[in-house]
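thread from #wetlab-drylab

HS: before we spend reagent money on co-crystallization trials with S-adenosylmethionine, can we at least see a predicted complex? here's what I'd submit
DV: go for it
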Amino acid sequence: MTACLFGKPKQYSFTDRSAVVLSTLAKNLKLNAVNYTAAELPSDTQDEKTSADDSHVTAVRTPVANLRFLDWVEASNDEIAEYDADLFLAADVVFDPVIIEPLVRVISVLLRKSSCYGIISCTIRNPETFELFIKSLDSADVHIETLDHTPSNIYFYDRIAEVRILRLTKSRVH
Ligand SMILES: C[S@@+](CC[C@H](N)C(=O)[O-])C[C@H]1O[C@@H](n2cnc3c(N)ncnc32)[C@H](O)[C@@H]1O
């Protein structure tokens, strides 16, 4: 939300495969007066009346936000490439070995655009799962840079698990 409001993107897409998460995102966008569109959402998500011309959503912010259903397992490469992203952001998405392969495919397809890079915040609850993610990225020729960051004490969160922030780019063959 902060990147969408203050990063001044031309367009920002929020994605998930969960109707509950998408509904919560819709509420947060309304609370922050972000104008957004919500095409292609499953019908149970549409119940939240997610619409760009919803009367109390005022277009006071410049970026155009989209709420979009995206399932890393089901999405075709073409659907993923349609995002045409310059930057993708993700937090706490490496939590289950089963989703690593589909997630790395999504990342690889997004990184086909040469100007694209990703920032992923990983909470390391299980080091083996994180290692598997790193190996899978490596096999997919994704370059990984671990960014320095100072954990903030502003928010309440689990301070026991380590958080690593990765910058992902396509490895260039020299
Ligand atoms: C641990 S939560 C993290 C949520 C949020 N990014 C955060 O940091 O609070 C993981 C998120 O990944 C989503 N997710 C899991 N499997 C997915 C899949 N196959 N396709 C798309 N999203 C998925 C879940 O719906 C959930 O919102």
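DV: The first helix runs from residue 2 to 6.
HS: ok that's useful, forwarding to the group
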